[in-house]
Design goal:
The protein is an alpha/beta fold and 335 residues long. It folds into two domains: 130 residues, NAD(P)-binding Rossmann-like Domain (Rossmann fold); 183 residues, Rossmann fold. It is built from twelve helices and twelve strands. Strand 1, helix 1 and strand 2 form a beta-alpha-beta unit. The longest helix has 19 residues. It starts with a strand and ends in a 23-residue tail after the last helix.
């Protein structure tokens, strides 16, 4: 019997590769630079039965039209806003992701951004590199405390709740949040309070974004939103860069509309090295490192491999994004 073949568009941790090998699957893994464009990825996918995608762009309706033979697409991520899920379902292609495994790592990244911005730590580190560490004055280079302040979470799901738990229990922060639906467990365990979006903006000392990127949330943090925040507030985004308008954020920081901002996601991404945000005293930008720990990336590779194996065995994916595909008579069943 011919062995099933998997295409992997970037180098993933050995934890995932070992699972594929143990399942008797062959794989082709792209190890070169630059990363593949969508047309190159399509050519590879046409010669394989499954696709393990680590941030591949262009998984649109045309992609699934050309690669409708795929038995499964496993994402090496929790986010799937770059995938046309409806098109995949139409062509009977199950899509899997890696939920839950990166909750703590991403929440820790949000916390790191909060602290780094609050204490101007990255800017002051750069000052040392420039030889500008002179005699300090009692009123010089002051940051702000976060203990006892109000944290406003936009999207109090698993990652947002991880962050809220850290902040409430370690820094005695008050937690308010805005969701489409109530998080009763967080209200019960953390004393979290649901508020309207405008009330969250007006009451929060730190606003942390953990919402998915949808048509409703795209650009929701524009200059109008920033002007509703406290002038002493910090804006943190570890969700998706499209949730904030980057030009409006730059203006808000330059004009003192808000006190600071910490980003692990940008729009566009990667960010231009010429962006004013990179040289601001009150801004910190990370290169999308929310899940970048050995432990988390190993778990992501494991989940992705488990989705691949299940899909090629004709089984329901353990972590499906489009479970509705299983009611689709056109679902691609391995032969």
């Amino acid at each position: 019997m011919e062995r099933k073949k998997v295409f992997i568009n970037k180098v993933i941790p050995e934890a995932g590769l070992r699972l594929l090998e143990a399942a008797g699957l062959d794989y082709t893994m792209w190890r070169e630079k630059p990363v593949l464009d969508r047309e190159q990825a399509i050519l590879f996918c046409k010669g394989h039965d499954a696709f393990l995608s680590a941030g591949q762009s262009g998984l649109d309706a045309d992609f699934f039209e050309q690669c409708s033979h795929l038995k499964v697409v496993a994402l090496h991520s929790v986010g799937f806003d770059g995938v046309d899920i409806a098109a995949a379902t139409k062509h009977g292609v199950p899509i899997g992701n890696t939920p839950n495994v990166l909750n703590r790592a991403t929440a820790e990244t949000a916390l790191l951004l909060m602290l780094t911005v609050a204490r101007k730590a990255l800017f002051l580190h750069k000052q040392i590199q420039k030889g500008a560490w002179g005699v300090s004055q009692p009123t010089q280079d002051l940051g702000i405390d976060i203990a006892g302040k109000t944290l406003g979470v936009v999207g109090l799901g698993r990652i947002g709740t991880e962050l809220a738990t850290m902040c409430a229990k370690s820094w005695n922060m008050k937690i308010i949040y805005h969701n489409r639906s109530r998080n009763e467990e967080a209200e019960r365990e953390l004393g979290a309070e649901w508020v309207s979006f405008d009330d969250l903006l007006g009451q929060s000392d730190i606003v942390s974004v953990h919402t998915a990127l949808t048509e409703e949330t795209r650009g929701m943090f524009d200059l109008k939103a920033f002007k509703k925040m406290k002038s002493s507030a910090i804006f943190v985004n570890t969700a998706r860069g499209g949730v904030h308008d980057e030009n409006d954020l730059i203006q808000a920081l330059q004009e003192g509309v808000i006190w600071g901002a910490g980003l692990d996601v940008t729009n566009p991404e990667p960010m231009s090295s010429e962006s004013p945000l990179l040289n601001m005293e009150n801004a910190v930008v990370f290169p999308h490192i929310g899940s970048s720990t050995f432990e988390t990336r190993n778990e992501m590779a494991r989940c992705a491999a488990e989705n691949i194996i299940a899909g090629l065995n004709g089984e329901r994916l353990p972590y499906p994004v489009n479970p509705e595909v299983y009611g689709n008579d056109n679902i691609n069943t391995p032969q």
